[in-house]
């Protein structure tokens, strides 16, 4: 109210105590003559501070309720960006007047942003499904949940605005991500079965609750490693994430005909992460397996943390301003249009195409908008983030989708021509696309049998037995081999191999 004069301030302050007042009531509460009141009320109405209701003797006045953006401070790489709140059923966001940095995705204008749902740039940071429900059951709105996510992906921090005076975080010495990439990602071979003990209660391993700040559907636990005692422990400043196996999907139940039976899902992810890392040379973080009672727990290192600093990472649901429950409901074409807008270098665009072709070959049907992201390596230069959540659905299902997002209107039986059309959206020529596709498929044909062979030698859990019926059993490496042979046969049938000269 600094812009108001003395009389105006007295009138506005009177409405803070008495929400609705007639001219006579205002005179009693302020002691300002009615003629003067009328003059200043007109000024306050014109400036949007007060509104008049009714006519003649029945007219009264009330204070216009303006959004108060002062609850949750939003910080990015240690810098105050703005304020977030929920008021009267609406979410509100306003940039801090001193913020001169890049605007957030989906919030690109000035002024106060108002929405009935939380803005996707923030909503996509919050866990999904049962994990989200664990917070909501406590009566928290989504903005308040952000305050509890001390280690969400990327470089956001959320604190109560009245605690800003105590927040100190200097990012001036943070190194360019590329310079420390090798230290962050580390080397690791397949299969990496960790000689570590889980120092975590069994109830937490089974519970889809408040055990991780990371988004997503699966149960996750934020952990660190005590290398001296060889223990894996929960942590609020975690550098690692643990995905416990789901007992419900790890055991075959012949009575449940519609059961999602996904044995050795952690091994599946570790295998394809290792395959992408070591056979293709993609940026992939260190990962490993922990032997549980009936299946493997999966563990992976964070790649957006180093030396106490956070690095900006954002997924394409955030970038495209799409809520997490809509992460499958777009197309590969729209995704690649968005990639072309935020990634400028030709080499980086090629990296995205390589990843997409790799995902197609391994039938990564869980590739949705939240499973592909970019990382800021410094000075707002973005590249494809290290890969994560790589799982082949085709290992379990012969009729699996080949991609999570439709390409040319299809998720199955995708043609080489569809990839030519997709790559053109990034300015990549047909000839260059053909070379990339040939390399991706040749590596799959030549190198994947090694991973099948290694898997056949894992002795944990009775040589990885997989139940196929009430009395019938097979093993996980047989599933891998069937998947491998099926993919090659289908690529032959669609003339992929012939057209690529393979």
Can you walk me through this structure?
- The chain has helices spanning 6-17, 23-30, 34-46, 120-123, 129-136, 142-148, 177-185, 202-206, 247-250, 265-278, 316-319, 332-342, 346-361, 416-424, 430-456, 460-464, 476-493, 496-499, and strands at 20-21, 50-53, 60-63, 72-76, 79-87, 90-95, 112-115, 156-160, 197-198, 221-226, 231-234, 240-243, 287-291, 296-301, 305-306, 309-310, 313-315, 373-378, 381-384, 465-467, 473-475.
- With 502 residues, the chain is of the alpha+beta class.
- It folds into three domains: 6-63, Winged helix-like DNA-binding domain superfamily/Winged helix DNA-binding domain (Arc Repressor Mutant, subunit A, Orthogonal Bundle), CATH 1.10.10; 72-166, no CATH class; 183-499, no CATH class.
- It has a six-stranded mixed sheet, with helices on one face.
- Strand 20 (465-467) and strand 21 form a beta hairpin.
List its salient traits:
Arc Repressor Mutant, subunit A, 502 residues, 6-stranded mixed sheet, elongated, 18 helices, 18% strand, 3 domains, alpha+beta, 5-stranded antiparallel sheet
């Amino acid at each position: 109210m600094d812009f108001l004069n003395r009389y105006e301030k007295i009138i506005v302050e009177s409405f803070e105590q008495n929400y609705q007042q007639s001219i006579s009531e205002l005179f009693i509460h302020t002691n300002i003559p009615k003629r003067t009141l009328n003059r200043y009320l007109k000024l306050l109405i014109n400036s949007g501070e007060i509104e008049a209701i009714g006519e003649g003797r029945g007219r009264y006045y009330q204070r216009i309720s303006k959004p108060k953006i002062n609850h949750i401070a939003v910080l990015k790489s240690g810098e105050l960006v703005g304020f977030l709140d929920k008021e009267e059923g609406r979410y509100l966001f306003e940039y801090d007047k001193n913020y001169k940095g890049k605007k957030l995705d989906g919030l690109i204008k000035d002024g106060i942003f108002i929405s009935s749902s939380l803005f996707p740039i923030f909503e996509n940071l919050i866990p999904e499904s049962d994990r989200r429900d664990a917070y909501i059951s406590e009566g928290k709105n989504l903005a308040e949940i952000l305050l509890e996510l001390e280690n969400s992906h990327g470089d956001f921090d959320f604190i109560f605005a009245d605690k800003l005076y105590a927040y100190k975080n200097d990012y001036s010495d943070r190194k360019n991500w590329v310079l420390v990439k090798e230290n962050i990602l580390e080397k690791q071979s397949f299969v990496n079965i960790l000689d570590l003990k889980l120092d975590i209660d069994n109830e937490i391993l089974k519970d889809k609750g408040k055990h991780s700040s990371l988004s997503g559907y699966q149960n996750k636990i934020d952990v660190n490693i005590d290398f001296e005692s060889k223990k894996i422990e929960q942590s609020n400043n975690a550098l690692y994430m643990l995905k416990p196996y789901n007992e419900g999907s790890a055991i075959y139940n012949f009575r449940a005909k519609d059961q999602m039976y996904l044995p050795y899902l952690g091994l599946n992810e570790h295998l394809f992460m290792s395959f992408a890392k070591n056979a293709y040379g993609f940026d992939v973080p260190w990962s490993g397996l922990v032997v549980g009672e009936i299946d493997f727990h999966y563990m992976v290192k964070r790649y957006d943390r180093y030396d106490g600093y956070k690095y900006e990472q954002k997924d394409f649901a955030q970038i495209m301003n799409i809520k997490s429950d809509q992460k499958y409901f777009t197309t590969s074409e729209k995704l690649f249009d968005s990639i072309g807008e935020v990634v400028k270098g030709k080499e980086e665009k090629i990296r995205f195409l390589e990843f997409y072709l790799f995902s197609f070959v391994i039938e990564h049907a869980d590739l949705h908008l939240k499973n592909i992201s970019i990382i800021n390596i410094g000075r707002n230069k973005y590249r494809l983030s290290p890969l994560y959540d790589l799982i082949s659905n085709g290992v379990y299902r012969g009729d699996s989708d080949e991609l999570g997002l439709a390409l040319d209107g299809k998720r199955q039986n995708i043609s080489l021509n569809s990839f030519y059309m997709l790559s053109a959206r990034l300015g990549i020529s047909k000839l260059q696309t053909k070379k990339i596709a040939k390399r991706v498929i040749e590596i799959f044909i030549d190198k994947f049998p090694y991973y099948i062979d290694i898997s056949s030698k894992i002795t944990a859990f009775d040589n990885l037995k997989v139940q196929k019926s009430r009395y019938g059993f097979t093993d996980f490496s047989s599933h891998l081999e069937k998947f491998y042979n099926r993919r090659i046969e289908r690529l032959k049938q669609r003339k992929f191999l012939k057209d690529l000269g393979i």
